[in-house]
Design a protein that fits this description.
alpha+beta, 3-stranded antiparallel β-sheet, 6 strands
């Protein structure tokens, strides 16, 4: 954390010692209208030597109505809750919501994937910091990616000992 606060380190790979839970909390259902206006105004500002074709197809995506977090322990036994900002988690929620048409079912499916299925893997997190909490939060890190490869038994690799 010291490296993040000193602006020397903004990304890290972290292997939790123990996963204690996976939770969600209600979040705002709509984007902040002032931020949307600011963003739309910026998309209207063209640059003389830039390719501005993306501006014609720019669309606002639906806001994720929940914030997802892991509850975990590190190797020193310190417990913490880290928010998951990985877009794949949000996309899983939207896919499940479209498939089942029920928020409660979609939330349970996300939890099943991120806690039950990933809990059986060699789980690692890609951590980043957010500008909002970078300088003063006790732990300014958030999970920006989840890496969950399956465990491999060394004896199954076929390497002679």
């Amino acid at each position: 954390m010291a490296g993040a606060k000193e602006n020397r380190l903004s990304l890290a790979v972290f292997k939790p010692a123990k996963i204690r839970g996976f939770i969600w909390e209600d979040d705002e259902r709509d984007w902040n209208p002032d931020k949307v206006k600011e963003m739309r105004d910026k998309t209207r500002q063209t640059e003389m030597f830039a390719d501005d074709a993306w501006r014609e197809t720019f669309k606002l995506i639906p806001k994720l109505p929940y914030a997802f977090s892991y509850q975990l322990e590190d190797a020193g036994g310190r417990k913490s809750t880290m928010q998951v900002l990985d877009w794949e988690c949000g996309q899983l929620y939207w896919n499940c919501f479209r498939r089942y048409g029920d928020e409660a079912v979609a939330l349970k499916k996300v939890k099943a994937k991120y806690l039950d299925e990933f809990g059986k893997c060699d789980l690692h997190f890609f951590l980043g910091t957010t500008q909002q909490f970078h300088g003063f939060a006790p732990n300014p890190r958030v999970i920006v990616g989840v890496f969950a490869p399956p465990y491999e038994n060394q004896l199954e690799l076929g390497i002679p000992i």
